Each structure stands twice: as structure tokens, then as C-alpha cells.
């Protein structure tokens, strides 16, 4: 019915009371007598135990409340620290977002066409298809076939549109194709996605007689009427010239890091820009 802790406390209190009463009675009756001294000597050990018990309980009680206060203060400090970390993280994210947006806006100023900023809100989970979903659709003026860019280079083109979102086929997809040329030598070819790696492209139909080297920049030619001329696509990473055939094998690494896409630019009047 009663806990051990309560029973122990009550017992100590009773013991203290008994000792105090006994000491008082003994002191009055045997102030100077030998029996009084004997009684005191008998009671003294109990009083000593009682005093130490009281001191022990008082220390535990005091330390308990001190620990409670320290724990409460520690909890407050932890909450304050977590709020500060969260606030600092939001500040860092805002700063990074502003830097990306500033780059997009600076790139937008150099574009001749009408450009719309869109946020990447999804990605195709299939390893066979390379596409993303953006948060702009028909209500924003998006149409099929429009080119999608970032300051680093070409991202892809819009292949499907709904009211408030659109699907973008990336240039690294195996069914993607961009008419392109080597910026240094003007050698022509087609950029096709590499289905084996998913993060590289082939520059196909490049004649063996043309001078193409590793490190050359591949840009859009504008002849496909989709992508305006002069947009960066990637850098030549490997060139293979075999002893047979009329074409050379050229592997291109895109400038765009497709795993880190968060915001993109959609050129709304790309056909008008391509015809200029």
C-alpha cells in the first residue's frame, strides 16, 4: 500500500522524535547523575545515526533539486541550440538559392528569347529513361518541344505538358538528339544520349577527316530549330578513330550536372530565336 521510500522516511522521522524525547527526559531527570550519563552514552549513537541520516537526506534532497534545475536548464539550452542550427541552415539554403537564382537571372539577360524560370519537382525513377518534372505547364505558356537550359548548358526539351507541370527529356537520354558542332573546328554531328552510362553522350556522324580532340567544346548548331545556336552542351572526353568506316567515335561529357538540377530556364519563343 505504501512504497518503501515513504516507509523509510516515516521510520526516520519516528526515530528522530523518539531520540529527542528520550534525550529531553533524560536530561531533566539525570542532569548530573551517573544513570543520566549512562543514558546519554546509550542514546548518543542513535543521535549520531539520526543526525547523519538527516544530513544524508538533506543532501540528497538538495542535489535532487539541483539536478532537476540543471536538467531543465540543459533542455532549454538544447532547444535554443537546435533553433539556432535550424535558423542557420535555413539562412544557408536561402543564400545558396539566391546564388543559383542570380546566375539564372544573369544568364537570362543574355538570352535573346523570352525565358521562364521553373523549379524541378520530380525525377523519372526508371534507369532507362532520363527525364525530370518541372512546376510550369500550359497555364504558364509551356508547350511541347521547348528547350530547357541552365547557365552551364543545355538540359533537354519539353516532351509532355499538363496544366501546371511539364516533363523534360534530358540530353543524356538514349532517345534524345541535338544537332551540334565542335566550337573550335565547326565539325558537324548529332549529340545522342548514352544508355549504358546515363551521364555521357555520343557525338555521332562526325567524319573521320575532321579534327576533333579531347577537351573541345560541343555547342548547339541551331539547325534542329529546337535549341538556339551556340548553347553549350558538353566537352569531348574521348575520341576514337578506327581504321575502317567514315565516322569517328566521340564521347562527350555534358557540362550540366543532372543530379543537382533544382531550377531551370525554359525558352518560350525558341523557334523565333533559332530563326534569327
Question: In words, what does this structure look like?
Answer:
- By secondary structure, the chain is α+β, with helices and mostly antiparallel strands.
- It folds into 2 domains: 1-110; 115-274, Rod shape-determining protein MreC, domain 1 (Thrombin, subunit H, Beta Barrel), CATH 2.40.10.340.
- Helix content is 39%, strand content 27%.
- The protein contains 3 helices and 13 strands.
- A 6-stranded antiparallel beta barrel has the order 1-2-5-4-3-13. A 6-stranded antiparallel beta barrel has the order 6-7-8-12-11-10.
- Helix 1 (4-29) packs antiparallel against helix 2.
- The model is unreliable at 28-32 (pLDDT under 50).
Spatial strand order of the main sheet: 1-2-5-4-3-13
Helix content range? 25-40%
Name of the CATH superfamily of the largest domain? Rod shape-determining protein MreC, domain 1
| Rg (CA only) | 41 Å
Distance between the termini: 95 Å
Beta strand count: 13
Order of helices and strands: HHEEEEEEEEEEEEEH
Q: pLDDT average, as an integer?
A: 79
Poorly predicted ranges (pLDDT <50, ≥5 residues)? 28-32
> Could you give a short account of the major beta sheet?
6 strands, antiparallel, barrel
The CATH class of the largest domain: Mainly Beta
- What is the second-level CATH architecture of the largest domain? Beta Barrel
Q: What best-fitting shape do the alpha-carbon axes yield?
A: elongated
Amino acid at each position: 500500500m505504501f512504497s518503501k521510500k515513504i516507509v523509510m522516511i516515516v521510520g526516520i522521522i519516528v526515530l528522530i522524535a523518539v531520540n529527542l524525547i528520550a534525550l529531553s527526559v533524560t536530561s531533566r531527570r539525570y542532569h548530573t547523575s551517573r544513570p543520566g550519563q549512562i543514558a546519554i552514552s546509550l542514546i548518543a549513537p542513535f543521535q549520531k545515526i539520526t543526525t547523519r541520516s538527516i544530513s544524508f537526506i538533506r543532501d540528497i534532497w538538495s542535489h535532487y533539486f539541483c539536478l532537476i534545475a540543471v536538467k531543465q536548464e540543459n533542455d532549454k539550452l538544447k532547444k535554443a541550440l537546435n533553433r539556432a542550427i535550424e535558423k542557420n541552415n535555413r539562412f544557408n539554403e536561402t543564400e545558396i538559392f539566391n546564388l543559383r537564382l542570380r546566375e539564372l537571372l544573369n544568364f537570362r539577360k543574355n538570352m535573346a528569347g523570352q525565358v521562364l524560370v521553373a523549379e524541378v519537382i520530380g525525377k523519372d525513377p526508371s534507369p532507362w529513361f532520363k527525364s525530370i518534372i518541372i512546376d510550369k505547364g500550359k497555364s504558364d505558356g509551356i508547350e511541347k518541344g521547348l528547350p530547357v537550359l541552365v547557365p552551364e548548358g543545355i538540359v533537354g526539351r519539353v516532351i509532355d505538358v499538363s496544366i501546371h507541370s511539364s516533363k523534360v527529356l534530358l540530353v543524356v537520354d538514349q532517345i534524345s538528339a541535338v544537332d551540334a558542332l565542335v566550337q573550335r573546328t565547326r565539325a558537324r554531328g548529332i549529340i545522342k544520349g548514352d544508355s549504358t552510362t546515363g551521364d555521357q553522350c555520343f557525338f555521332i556522324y562526325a567524319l573521320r577527316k575532321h579534327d576533333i580532340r579531347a577537351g573541345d567544346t560541343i555547342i548547339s548548331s541551331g539547325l534542329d530549330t529546337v535549341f538556339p545556336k551556340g548553347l553549350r552542351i558538353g566537352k569531348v572526353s574521348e575520341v576514337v578513330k578506327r581504321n575502317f568506316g567514315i565516322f569517328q567515335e566521340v564521347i562527350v561529357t555534358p557540362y550540366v550536372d543532372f543530379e543537382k538540377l533544382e531550377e531551370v530556364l525554359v525558352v518560350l519563343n525558341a523557334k523565333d530565336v533559332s530563326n534569327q
